[in-house]
Amino acid sequence: MSNPVKQFYELGPFRIDVAKRLLLRDGEPLPLTPKAVDTLLALAIVKQRYDWDWTGAESEFKRALELNPNDAPAREMYALYLAAVGRLKEAKIEINRALELDSLSFQINRDLGEILYFARAYEQAIEQLRRTLKMDPDEPQAFAAHRLLGWIFLHRGLPDQALEEFIEALRLQRADSTWLSTLRQAYAAAGMQGYWRKWLEMHQSRIQRGRLNPFYMAQIYAFLGETEQAFMYLGEAYEDRSVCPAVLQFNTNFDCLRADPRYEGLRRRLALRP
User: Is 34 helix (H, G, I), strand (E, B) or coil?
Assistant: First the structure.
């Protein structure tokens, strides 16, 4: 059963309620006026994440940046847009411009690490994410940086380091200590395949209730080599708009799916260029 279409979108400091046409920045509602930068960014996010209208989204991003070239979150979001459409060189330029405008932003620093990962510059990505975590180890989004580091270490052939990052991400999400111990035991018995299979087993009740992000589930099943399950969750992610085109195209987990016609079919549905 497909999940309902997602009604809330978050990107940078923005949160959009699509149904109510309500825009919030840092939790505060903003008026939607035709020439306001925030309105243009809201339109860009909806076109990018909800409509898959890549040309329209870029037009709104560019108009916003023309109005305020020094808006760091706007440049950050434009960088993520560029990554989503496969223009990684331009994405790196834009995310570095955002960083010049706000060098202390945890999120922008993390996004630079992720764009480097998309470009498969693994050592640079690791260095960037480690610097990011040193900035503020208690940042609420630190778990996401640790989790990303885990995948990078895994793709670098360093499973022990990957394990520590995955465990730290779970610890920051307040996972029960017995869970962490059980996952360590699963890893000791069967490596990362054992870890993720145990992770899935431990999350079965949430999975059955549709409480986990289907796109992340697709990544896990792709890593495990379970193609049918991966495509099933990719279909759900497309329906609820949780699919992340940049991750779909550049995350190493999905390499095993790229020769399957269903992968190209999904890219076409997302209106991504070949």
Answer: coil
Q: Across-strand partners of 30? A: 23
Is 0.85 surpassed by the pTM of this model? yes
Q: Does any domain span residue 88?
A: no
- Whats the size of the chain, residue-wise? 274
Tell me which residue of 217, 224, 211 sits closest to 256, measured CA to CA: 224
Q: Which domain holds residue 191?
A: 140-202
Per-residue pLDDT of the chain (274 residues; tens, 9 = 90+): 334 444 455 555 666 665 555 667 666 776 655 557 777 787 888 889 888 999 999 999 999 999 899 999 999 999 999 999 999 999 999 999 999 999 999 999 999 999 999 999 999 999 999 999 999 999 999 999 999 999 999 999 999 999 999 999 999 999 999 999 999 999 999 999 999 999 999 999 999 898 899 999 999 999 999 999 999 999 999 998 889 999 999 999 999 999 999 999 999 999 998 7
